[in-house]
Design goal:
The protein has nine helices and 14 strands. It is α/β, with parallel strands linked by helices. The protein has an eight-stranded mixed sheet. A six-stranded parallel sheet has the order 3-2-1-4-5-6, sandwiched between helices. β2, α2 (54-64) and β3 form a beta-alpha-beta unit. The two termini are 13 Å apart. The structure holds nicotinamide-adenine-dinucleotide.
Amino acid sequence: MANDGSRHAEAPLEPSGETVGVVFVGCGYAADFYGATMPNYQHVEVKGAFDVDEQRAATFVAEYGGRAFSDFDEVLGDPDVAIVVNLTPVSQHYTVSKAALLAGKHVYSEKPLASSLPEATELVELARERGLLLSSAPSTIFSQAAQTLLRAVGDGLIGKPLLAHASLDMGALAFMPYTEWRSRRGVPWPYLDEVANGCVMEHAGYQLSWLVAMFGPVVRMAAHTSLQLADKWPGKTELAPDISLGFLEFASGTVCRLSIGWVAPADLSLTVVGDQGVLTVSDVWQASAPVMLQRHARTSGKTNAYLQEAEQLPFVVPPAQHRYDDTHDLTVGAGVADMAAAALKGEQPFLSADFSLHVLDVSLRLSEGRGVMEDVALPACDDKKLTLTPAVPRTAAR
Ligand SMILES: NC(=O)c1ccc[n+]([C@@H]2O[C@H](COP(=O)([O-])OP(=O)(O)OC[C@H]3O[C@@H](n4cnc5c(N)ncnc54)[C@H](O)[C@@H]3O)[C@@H](O)[C@H]2O)c1
């Protein structure tokens, strides 16, 4: 599927001068990723922040601009605020997003969209009824690596995509010094929340968003999970699985073996195998990870070789100027910027409500080890509700 890019999410929009007011609700660890990267997007105006912990909102606005709102109602009542960016803990996502939608605000939520499918579906329907935009992170789909991979697949560089091997194994979290991790403002990494949510609900979207963008919605899947390191979290009674394996079939016919976990050594790669070659990104958490292409080679004689040397594809979009100085480069602000651009143009963001709902649905199935073996569309992706096609994001369209 050809796509040839004149606009992308990592650069400012055409200088129309119009801006969209944004407020961050929740100023914890992840908020620094946003604050540091929003200056990439001149059409986004940071109006400020709110946190139930006043000190956190104060340090956020001191570092990244805008004003500290004294309560949530003040955010909701401010006519200059068009988008609420929900960076609260997962348990608060539904309540905060619902209140913002009811107040007439577009909502960009950190992942997952909500803790359950019924809650997320209610948010999606509320947004639709009120003509508001709703999106969920992750937004790594706008990275140089993702845009280049999607373009290469769309342009047919590997022929027909048959199979993907996708991993989001972050390494064995329990053996890392996670209690010492701090954000730029010194906010500790909330490991108790992360472990309770589990590796799948925290991380599946990083691979699923790329896969669904390339191959369309999941139409059939199997999943299995395990909890291997429960004894490393003493005192925690509710723990989610730390290993998940999924086998997914997409609307395009492409299938995927997906591994997510925090037990095995780190592997954050994505490989797409076509009938004419192979594309690989070594690390989907690095915005500028190289995209490598191996074309089929003509060979003869007694050999099992069939692939040429890997060549690095030129990136199809430039790097973001402002990056968050962390071990990962997650392009977080790009999703908010795409929503702001969509609001200005009266369009849907690439990470639409239906897209986000589908990613959540598949994530929940993976997290619960709940596969669907019948050859039927999943509930969140019937033809009327889901408009996904195996296509590249419009942000890469020329
Ligand atoms: N920690 C990470 O590395 C990371 C990375 C990417 C995305 N995320 C996602 O970002 C979101 C937030 O995670 P975090 O790590 O920043 O958590 P955190 O606990 O560090 O921060 C959450 C903040 O929200 C505030 N808060 C809680 N309830 C609130 C409410 N009702 N209204 C306003 N503020 C409220 C808390 O006081 C806290 O400061 C989660 O969805 C998480 O999955 C986290």
